[in-house]
From TrEMBL:
This is DUF3667 domain-containing protein. The keyword Transmembrane helix applies. Residues 183-192 have a biased composition (Low complexity). Residues 183-208 are annotated as: Disordered. Keywords: Membrane, Transmembrane, Transmembrane helix. The chain crosses the membrane at residues 88-108, 257-281, 301-320, 326-348, 369-389. It comes from Dyella nitratireducens. It comes from the Bacteria. Pfam families: DUF3667 (PF12412).
Length: 390
C-alpha cells in the first residue's frame, strides 16, 4: 500500500491523470524523469538487460525442447515472461545467417587452399628428352595426361584453363621429341576439347556476353537496369565456372554478399506465406490468420536456432577430428540428431497446436511440407540470382 499511497495527489506530467503507481494508467508514461545522473542510466540498462536475459532463459529452452509450448502459452495470454514471436524469429534469423556466413567463408578458404595444392600437381616442366623411342614418349605423355585428368575430375574450375595450357605444352614437347625420333605427331586433346565448346560470339561477330537485353515495351531505364543485371550474372557465373583463382574468389565474395544480403528480406516474405498455407489447410478450424502467423513465427524461430546449432556442430566436428577423432565423430552424431529432430519437432508442434488426429495431422503435415519445400526452393533461387547479380 505504501507504493500506491506514495503517489497520492500526484498528476501525470503528460495527461494530468491522477497517478496510482510508477506508470500512468491512462497514457502509460513513467513517473520517473529521463533527466537523471549517469549512474541511473547504467542501473536502468542493467535492469533491462537482466530482464531480457531472464526472458531468454524462459524462451529458448521451451522453444527448442517443447514443440508447440510457446505458441499455446501465447494463445493462453501468458506472454510477459517470453520474448515476442517476431523479435525472437528475427534475432535468431540474423544470428543463424551470421554463423552460416562464417562457416561458408571457412569452406571457401579450404576450397581455395585445395585448388592451390592441386595446382602444384600440374606438371609444368615435362621433359621427354630421356625417352629413346616413340613408344616411351607416348607412354610418358599418357601418364602425365592421366594426372591432369584426375586433377580436372575433382571439379577445380578455377584451374581448368591452367590445365588446358599445360596439356598443350605437354603435347608440344612430346611432338618435338617424336619429330626428332622420326615418328608422327600426336593430336592435342586440349585443342579437340576447345573445338567442341560453343563459341561465345554471336552471328554479328560480337560476344554474346556483350549483347544487351532490350525489351521494347519496357522503359529505357528498366531495360538498362535489366541489361546490367544480366551482365553481372553472366560475369559472375563465368568467373565461378572458368575463372582463375583470384577471379573465382572475387565472384564467390560477390555471390556471398548478395545472398546473405537478400536472405533476411526473403525470409520476411516466407513467414507470412507459410502462415497462409496453414490458414488454407486448417480453414475449418476457424482460426484467425494472426494465430497461424504466430505458429509460423515460432516454427521459423525453431528452424533458425536448429540451423545455428547444426552449423556449430558441423564446424566443431571438422575442427575436432584432426585433434581427437572421437570428439569429432560425437559432434557429427549430434549434428545428425539435430537434423532428425527438426521434422519430428514440427510434426509434434502441428499436432499439439491444431489438436487433430495423427492420421489427418500426417496428411496435412506432408502437404504443407511439400508446398513449403517448393516455396523455400523458389526463395533460395531468387536469393542466388540476386547474389549473382550483386
Amino acid at each position: 500500500m505504501k507504493e500506491l499511497t506514495s503517489y497520492e495527489g500526484a498528476l501525470c506530467a503528460n495527461c494530468q491523470a491522477p497517478l496510482q503507481g510508477e506508470f500512468c494508467h491512462h497514457c502509460g508514461q513513467s513517473v520517473h524523469s529521463v533527466l537523471r545522473p549517469v549512474h541511473g542510466l547504467f542501473e536502468e540498462f542493467f535492469e533491462t538487460f537482466l530482464h531480457i536475459d531472464g526472458r531468454i532463459l524462459h524462451t529458448l529452452p521451451a522453444l527448442f525442447l517443447k514443440p508447440g509450448f510457446l505458441t499455446l502459452e501465447y494463445f493462453s495470454g501468458r506472454r510477459v515472461r517470453y520474448i515476442a514471436p517476431f523479435r525472437l524469429m528475427f534475432v535468431l534469423c540474423l544470428l543463424s545467417f551470421f554463423v552460416l556466413h562464417l562457416a561458408t567463408d571457412v569452406i571457401a578458404q579450404r576450397i581455395e587452399h585445395r585448388d592451390q595444392r592441386n595446382s602444384v600437381v600440374i606438371d609444368q616442366g615435362a621433359d621427354f628428352s630421356q625417352a629413346q623411342t616413340a613408344q616411351e614418349v607416348r607412354h610418358q605423355l599418357d601418364a602425365k595426361l592421366e594426372t591432369l585428368e584426375a586433377t580436372r575430375a575433382i571439379g577445380n574450375a578455377a584451374i581448368v584453363a591452367q590445365i588446358d595450357q599445360t596439356e598443350q605444352k605437354l603435347h608440344q614437347q612430346a611432338n618435338a621429341r617424336l619429330a626428332e625420333l622420326g615418328a608422327p605427331a600426336r593430336a592435342s586433346s586440349a585443342s579437340k576439347r576447345s573445338g567442341d565448346e560453343p563459341s561465345d560470339e554471336g552471328s554479328d561477330g560480337t560476344s554474346k556476353l556483350e549483347q544487351p537485353i532490350h525489351i521494347s515495351w519496357l522503359p529505357a531505364f528498366a531495360s538498362q537496369r535489366l541489361a546490367e543485371f544480366d551482365e553481372h550474372i553472366r560475369k559472375n557465373a563465368k568467373a565461378l565456372h572458368r575463372g582463375t583463382i583470384t577471379e573465382r574468389r572475387e565472384a564467390w565474395e560477390h555471390l556471398e554478399a548478395g545472398i546473405y544480403g537478400a536472405l533476411p528480406g526473403t525470409m520476411l516474405v516466407l513467414v507470412p506465406m507459410f502462415a497462409l498455407l496453414l490458414k488454407l489447410f486448417y480453414i475449418f478450424k476457424r482460426r484467425l490468420y494472426m494465430e497461424h502467423l504466430i505458429v509460423s513465427l515460432h516454427s521459423h524461430a525453431f528452424l533458425f536456432v536448429s540451423l545455428l546449432l547444426i552449423v556449430i556442430a558441423g564446424m566443431l566436428s571438422t575442427w575436432l577430428r584432426p585433434i581427437a577423432a572421437w570428439t569429432g565423430y560425437a559432434a557429427g552424431l549430434m549434428q545428425g540428431a539435430l537434423m532428425l529432430w527438426v521434422p519430428a519437432y514440427l510434426l509434434i508442434m502441428q499436432k499439439r497446436v491444431y489438436r487433430q488426429g495423427w492420421a489427418m495431422t500426417l496428411v496435412k503435415y506432408w502437404c504443407v511440407g511439400w508446398c513449403y519445400f517448393w516455396l523455400l526452393l523458389l526463395i533460395l533461387m531468387v536469393a542466388v540470382v540476386l547474389g549473382l547479380a550483386h
